[in-house]
């Protein structure tokens, strides 16, 4: 079949399908996000136009935004579908590097197709080409190497035959998934080749479920059976494996209290008596107290990030770590007994070794007791008060009005702590995306656009601060133009409040975070009219200044988004000094002359590096 490189790539994308967690067959690549330039409009752009009936292409308005939308799509589909983003070379390509970092940090599949310079070099230097004096083979796209799981530059059409199977492998491999970058030189996109028909035959990709080594299983089971106070930590790997039900059955059979990480949030129904709450800095004091008392931790599908482990101070120094993870890289961290395999089938195999064993009943019962104390704390934070509402109060309203199938998102600033620490889930299918692996400001709106495309069983609500809104808001118009409904709650607290809190709580002077502390030549600097701006972007807009108004505005926004098939934005002024605190420590560099240095030096010795006994 004689095709251009670009035509062959598009035909291959269309032929790929995947199997969802509930067994449905869906397109593996359901959407392409594109901004065309001279480096991709005639090659890849023409190929996409020719297949527009089967390959949806959505117009983005920033390359970073549309690539982040592709990331949000992957998370909402539990890594069973992959978004594609294409740009010309130069600034358009480099704008997608941040999104690649988000996908890499969060272990989410993403396919990036940036244009590249001419392989012939005949017209060099072309527009947007950065020339490297000592290496003419280097282009700006080499910047993707540091944030790609798989990188290739296609310099001959027939190279697709070797690289496309690797692309599919990485995008569907639970241990190795992440961003894939195929740099496409402008001239090569248009070159033709006689491709074999077999390349375009339909394929259904089913995510593999490798089982753990039987010796490791026996060792892990023995360590767990010796424990009196075990704790389970459920991470994103449980979500992507579809192992939530299996994990809870295992916990209930053996009386093991359960906690969640950021990526594993909403796997467990809030009312489950074994649920101790979310773990870590942005988690709950209840979960952290259980972690401090545990003598064994069964971690499942987690990277054990610093916010989860409180910079490795949340666990007892002598705790035994048993880690189920598809990626050996993560499974061996801190000397854990590594059970390398799929979460669902590995838990099934581990259960066969645990017959008749249960944790201490008093320890099991403690989970509900400490979480009840945390619930009382959250109830107080959510209670209505006069004046501007707090983040916790707004989260409480959104939580109350969301249906079990709705989807909630955030990424950076103070809102991750409020959603992770305070949200009360109904359990079942995971319904939260807190991008706190890369903590990318701007993901909140762009990622919500991608999620809204694929989360058809409920409404997507994204919560963000004024800083994130100003950082990247163009995909609001993309979603409005495309006709994808969602709700965005924009919390305006006059600056980067959570970093201002960190700065001042450690003894630093307030500087360059709140607008009141930023340099300006105006005696009365301007304020952003967020409502007018969101309206100009094609959104339905509502405003609120207190909690009562917010409940009404959010209710109306939900109805308007669905009825008008476009984003509805709620603008609400918020407090800048009230936060949900778990009490856990987080290591940041504190200069010796600041008052926070004393607390730093007191906490630092509690930080341990767990090692595996000989």
UniProtKB/TrEMBL annotation:
Its EC number is 2.2.1.6. One of its GO terms (cellular component) is acetolactate synthase complex. Residues 40-128 form the Thiamine pyrophosphate enzyme N-terminal TPP-binding domain. InterPro entries: DHS-like_NAD/FAD-binding_dom (IPR029035), Myo_inos_IolD (IPR030817), THDP-binding (IPR029061), Thiamin_PyroP_enz_cen_dom (IPR012000), Thiamin_PyroP_enz_TPP-bd_dom (IPR012001), TPP_enz (IPR045229), TPP_enzyme_TPP-bd (IPR011766). Transmembrane segments: none annotated. Pathway: Amino-acid biosynthesis; L-isoleucine biosynthesis; L-isoleucine from 2-oxobutanoate: step 1/4; Amino-acid biosynthesis; L-valine biosynthesis; L-valine from pyruvate: step 1/4. CDD domains: TPP_PYR_POX_like (cd07035). It is an enzyme of class 2 (transferase). The keyword Transmembrane does not apply. Residues 219-350 form the Thiamine pyrophosphate enzyme central domain. Belongs to the TPP enzyme family. PANTHER family: 3D-(3,5_4)-TRIHYDROXYCYCLOHEXANE-1,2-DIONE HYDROLASE (PTHR18968:SF9), THIAMINE PYROPHOSPHATE ENZYMES (PTHR18968). This is acetolactate synthase. It comes from Nocardia uniformis.
């Amino acid at each position: 079949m004689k095709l251009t490189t670009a035509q062959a790539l598009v035909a291959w994308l269309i032929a790929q399908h995947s199997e969802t967690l509930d067994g449905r067959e869906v397109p593996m690549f359901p959407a392409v996000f594109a901004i065309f330039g001279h480096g991709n409009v005639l090659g890849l752009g023409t190929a996409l136009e020719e297949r527009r009936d089967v390959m949806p292409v959505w117009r983005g308005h920033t390359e970073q935004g549309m690539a982040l939308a592709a990331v949000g799509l992957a998370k909402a589909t539990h890594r069973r579908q992959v978004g594609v983003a294409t740009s010309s070379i130069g600034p358009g390509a480099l704008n997608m590097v941040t999104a690649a970092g988000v996908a890499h940090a969060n272990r989410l599949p993403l396919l990036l197709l940036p244009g590249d310079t001419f392989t012939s070099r005949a017209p060099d230097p072309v527009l947007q080409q950065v020339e490297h004096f000592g290496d003419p083979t280097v282009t700006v796209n080499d910047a993707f190497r540091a944030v790609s799981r798989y990188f290739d530059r296609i310099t001959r059409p027939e190279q697709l035959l070797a690289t496309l199977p690797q692309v599919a492998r990485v995008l569907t491999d639970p241990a190795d998934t992440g961003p894939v970058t195929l740099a496409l030189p402008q001239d090569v996109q248009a070159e033709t080749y006689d491709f074999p028909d077999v390349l375009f035959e339909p394929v259904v990709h089913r995510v593999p479920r490798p089982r753990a080594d039987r010796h490791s299983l026996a060792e892990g089971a023995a360590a767990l059976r010796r424990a009196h106070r075990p704790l389970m930590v459920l991470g994103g790997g449980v979500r992507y494996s579809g192992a939530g039900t299996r994990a809870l059955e295992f916990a209930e059979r053996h009386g093991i209290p359960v906690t969640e990480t950021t990526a594993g949030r909403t796997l467990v129904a809030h009312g489950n008596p074994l649920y101790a709450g979310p773990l870590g800095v942005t988690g709950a004091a209840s979960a952290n107290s259980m972690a401090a008392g545990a003598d064994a931790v069964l971690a499942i599908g987690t990277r054990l990030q610093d916010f989860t482990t409180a910079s490795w101070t949340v666990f007892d120094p002598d705790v035994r770590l048993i880690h189920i993870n598809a990626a050996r890289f993560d499974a061996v961290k801190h000397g854990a007994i590594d059970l390398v395999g799929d979460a669902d089938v590995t838990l099934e195999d581990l259960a066969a070794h645990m017959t008749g064993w249960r944790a201490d009943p008093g320890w099991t019962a403690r989970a509900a007791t400490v979480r009840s104390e945390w619930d009382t704390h959250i109830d107080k934070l959510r209670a209505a008060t006069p004046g501007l509402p707090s983040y916790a109060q707004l989260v409480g309203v959104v939580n109350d009005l969301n249906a079990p199938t709705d989807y909630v998102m955030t990424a950076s600033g103070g809102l991750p702590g409020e959603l992770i620490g305070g949200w009360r889930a109904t359990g079942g299918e995971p319904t939260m995306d807190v991008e706190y692996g890369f903590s990318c400001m701007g993901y909140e709106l762009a990622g919500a656009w991608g999620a809204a495309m694929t989360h058809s069983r409920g409404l997507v609500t994204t919560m963000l601060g004024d800083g994130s809104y100003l950082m990247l808001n163009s995909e609001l118009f993309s979603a409005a133009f495309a006709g994808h409904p969602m709700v965005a709650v924009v919390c305006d607290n006059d600056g980067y409040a959570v970093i201002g809190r960190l700065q001042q709580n450690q003894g630093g002077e307030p500087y360059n975070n709140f607008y009141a502390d930023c340099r300006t030549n105006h005696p009365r600097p301007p304020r952003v009219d967020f409502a007018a701006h969101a309206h100009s972007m094609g959104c339905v807009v509502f405003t609120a200044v207190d909690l009562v108004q917010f409940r009404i505005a959010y209710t109306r926004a939900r109805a308007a988004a669905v009825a008008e098939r476009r984003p509805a934005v709620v603008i609400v002024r918020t407090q800048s000094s009230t936060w949900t605190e778990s009490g856990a420590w987080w290591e940041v560099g504190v200069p010796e002359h600041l008052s926070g240095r004393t607390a730093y030096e007191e906490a630092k010795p509690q930080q341990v590096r767990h090692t595996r006994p000989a």
